[in-house]
Every structure is written in C-alpha cells, then in structure tokens.
C-alpha cells in the first residue's frame, strides 16, 4: 500500500458518525415504505409484496454502503496512525544505491539481533537508541517488537510524548474494534427479510397461474 501523504480525518464516536446516521435513515425509510405498502388496501398482496421487496433491497444496499464507508475511513485512519511508528529501515527517498545497500544490510543485522534479544535487553537498547538519536537502531528494535508482539516497547518509545501516546491509543481502539462490537454491529446489520418478500414467489406463481387460466378460458 502506498504511504498516505495526508492525514485522514480522525473519527468521532460511532453513534455520531455520518455512516451511522445514514444507516439509521435507510432503516427508517424502509419502515415507512413498508407501512405505506401494507396499509394500502387498494393494492393486491402481490403489488404490496413487490413494493416491500424494492424498499427492503434499497435499504439493505444503503446500510451495506454506509458500513463500507465507515470501515474504509477507519482503515485509512489506522494505516496512517501505524505509519507514524518508525518501522522498517526508513531509507530516505533519493538515497543513492550504494548507501541504500549499506543501510539495508545494517538494518537487517540489527533486526536479527533485536529478534533474538530478551525484552529486557531490548528495552535497554531502545533507551540508548532514543538517547543518542540512533534512528536505524530504533527502527530495528521497534520492528522486532512489532513482529514479536511486544507493545510495551512501542509504549516506551511513545512515553513522554503526549501526541504519540494519544495516537497509539487511537490506533489500538480502531484495530480492536470494541466500539463497533454489540451496539455498533447492530446498527449496520441488514434488515431481516420481511414476510411479504418471503411470500412473493408464491404470490407470483399464483398470479401467473391465474393469468394462464384466463387466457385458456378465452380460447
């Protein structure tokens, strides 16, 4: 994935997100259309069912699109936040090939050492890398921590920098998805198939059979 050059907007609480309001509006519009169709006694049951099916399918498409929109924005924000953590060799654009080869080799060596070190030794080496501005060593340690599942080292790097701490908390919230669990998932759940849609094939079959009988009677 190419790096994101512009910071995506931070998302607010899921209940207040435009996607949630869009899904709520689609659900309300479906309910109104369903009520209008089934209470219109000038329509046959078949006509009512067809209207309900159209409204149901439209609402579910809208709800699905709203969820996709929310998930896309969450993913873009999470990717940007993750990119703020110095992982990988971080070779500047425009570095000449010879220097790039040296940097990559050094990074791989440091990464191998960090991957074999104990968490305690990594914490000590990380503190030294931060103190002396050793960016390549810092990147190797954080890359190893990321691969080994040692978030405490990323927290150590972020410590003392409120912006980093806040970004890490936001990243973990987005990746954990706790705010989408339960209540949030229910908001974007498709509307269950209504009885009218379930009955529609039978109603159409009866209508077709009735039409055939009328045609046969006119012969």
Write up this protein.
The chain is mainly alpha-helical. It has 2 domains: 14-83 and 189-219; 87-175, no CATH class. The chain contains 9 helices and no strands. α2 packs antiparallel against α9 (195-217), α4 (119-132) packs antiparallel against α5 and α5 (135-148) runs antiparallel to α6 (151-158). The longest helix is centred in the N-terminal third of the chain and has 39 residues, at 45-83. The protein is elongated, with a radius of gyration of 29 Å. The termini are far apart. Residues 214-219 have low confidence and may be disordered.
How is the topology of this model organized?
Blueprint: H1 18-38, H2 45-83, H3 97-116, H4 119-132, H5 135-148, H6 151-158, H7 162-176, H8 183-187, H9 195-217
Helix pairs in contact: 1-2, 2-7, 2-9, 3-5, 4-5, 5-6
* Percent of sequence in beta strands: under 5%
Mean pLDDT across every amino acid position: 90
Series of secondary-structure elements, N-terminal to C-terminal: HHHHHHHHH
Q: Into how many domains do the coordinates divide?
A: 2
Q: What form results from the Cα inertia axes? A: elongated
The share of residues in helices is: over 70%
Q: The biggest beta sheet, please?
A: none
Structural class, please?
mainly alpha
Question: What key phrases describe this protein's structure?
Answer:
single chain
